[in-house]
């Protein structure tokens, strides 16, 4: 998601925050420096995140501007991660708070957001949001408004036997059931066409995925003109038909979703990206109901972690949400083996 489309009040440049603020400044602000021992580039002491007592578990690299706990919590990361965990704030709000503390030149543009930060930090209830609104709007309003109209045609000549689909771990049965295949004509020519259906099962788009590494002039994914992917939640039409014995699994990509369905998790939906849109938030709330269970399984990268932390804080207002960190096993859910998924779902 390009930051250029964000409303001004939400703007935070994570890279700039991480490069301009030092971990030492933060530890000083929390009055933690005195609890740490310095040895060259490293600071070590008891972990202030899980509030441990072992004097060597928490380690900071000053030059790398990062930290790790080798004890109970096992957490670690950059300066924003630290403030996020310490304050119990979503990643983005932690970055905004840092901006407010240490970058007064930027804080002016975040006034609206910092009032939210303050109200959450003082444990006051979140400000009421209008129906359908979201705590964070990462896309311009235009991307989130209206409907994708159902298509008046179907691509009937897609080739389902392209080897790429097998390489992505999909069986012939899955490919056939979801109607994927190589497109031989039109703007998706040469792409694997992936049908996308809305909540009611109406076909609203074909997304194109180049089979393999695309040539330089072709994008990896191709969306039809005018199609707003943030209005759709891939596989929601089928997921809502499944009895809710297992939690609703939320992943980023179509292939993650199809692999999980194939492995026996039919209640899986894909965001078609790493962040939860306002519409997707509503679709998920509707699907699981009040107090329903949602498991977030986003990619083990920075975008996935931001996305999961934001989605968890928004969905937890009405659902029981767990954000599973798949990083211990794989980078993306589509690479997970069934035993690994089972192990992840058992973690508390
Ligand atoms: Zn710790």
Automatic annotation (TrEMBL):
UniProt cross-references to Gene3D superfamilies, sorted A to Z: 3.40.1360.10, Zinc finger, CHC2-type domain
One GO term (biological process): DNA replication, synthesis of primer
Recorded GO MF terms: DNA binding; DNA-directed RNA polymerase activity; zinc ion binding
Region (Disordered): 113-150
Matches recorded under SUPFAM superfamilies: DNA primase core (SSF56731), Zinc beta-ribbon (SSF57783)
Pfam families in the record: Toprim_2, Zn_ribbon_DnaG
UniProt KW Zinc-finger keyword: yes
All copies of domain Zinc finger CHC2-type, residue ranges: 43-99
Keywords: Metal-binding, Zinc, Zinc-finger
Cellular component terms (Gene Ontology): cytoplasm
Key word Zinc-finger present: yes
SMART domains registered for this protein in UniProt: ZnF_CHCC
Protein name: Toprim domain-containing protein
Source organism of this protein record: Prosthecobacter debontii
Source organism phylogeny: Bacteria, Pseudomonadati, Verrucomicrobiota, Verrucomicrobiia, Verrucomicrobiales
């Amino acid at each position: 998601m390009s930051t250029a489309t964000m409303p001004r009040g939400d703007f935070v440049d994570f890279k700039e925050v991480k490069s301009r603020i030092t971990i030492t400044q933060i530890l000083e602000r929390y009055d933690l420096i005195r609890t740490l021992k310095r040895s060259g580039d490293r600071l070590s002491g008891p972990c202030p995140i899980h509030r441990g007592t072992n004097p060597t578990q928490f380690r900071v690299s000053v030059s790398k501007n990062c930290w790790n706990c080798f004890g109970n919590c096992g957490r670690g990361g950059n300066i924003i991660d630290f403030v996020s965990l310490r304050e119990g704030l979503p990643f983005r709000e932690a970055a905004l708070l840092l901006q407010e503390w240490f970058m007064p030149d930027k804080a002016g543009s975040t006034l609206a957001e910092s009032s939210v930060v303050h109200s959450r930090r003082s444990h006051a209830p979140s400000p009421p949001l209008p129906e359908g609104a979201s705590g964070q709007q990462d896309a311009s309003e235009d991307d989130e408004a209206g409907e994708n109209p159902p298509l008046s045609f179907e691509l009937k000549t897609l080739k389902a036997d392209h080897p790429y689909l097998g390489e992505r771990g999909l069986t012939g049965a899955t490919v056939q059931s979801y109607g994927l295949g190589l497109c031989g004509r039109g703007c998706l020519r040469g792409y694997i066409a992936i049908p996308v259906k809305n909540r009611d099962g109406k076909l609203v788009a074909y997304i194109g995925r180049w089979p393999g590494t695309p040539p330089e002039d072709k994008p990896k994914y191709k969306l039809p003109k005018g199609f707003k992917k943030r209005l759709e939640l891939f596989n929601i039409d089928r997921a809502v038909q499944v009895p809710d014995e297992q939690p609703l699994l939320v992943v980023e990509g179509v292939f993650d979703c199809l692999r999980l369905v194939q492995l026996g998790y039919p209640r899986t939906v894909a965001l078609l990206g790493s962040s939860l849109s306002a519409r997707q938030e509503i679709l998920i709330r509707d699907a699981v109901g009040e107090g329903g269970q949602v498991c977030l399984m986003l990619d083990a990268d920075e975008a996935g972690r931001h996305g999961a932390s934001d989605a968890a804080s928004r969905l937890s207002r009405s659902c029981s949400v767990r954000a599973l960190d798949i990083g211990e096993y794989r980078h993306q859910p589509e690479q997970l083996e069934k035993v690994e998924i089972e192990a992840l779902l058992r973690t508390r």
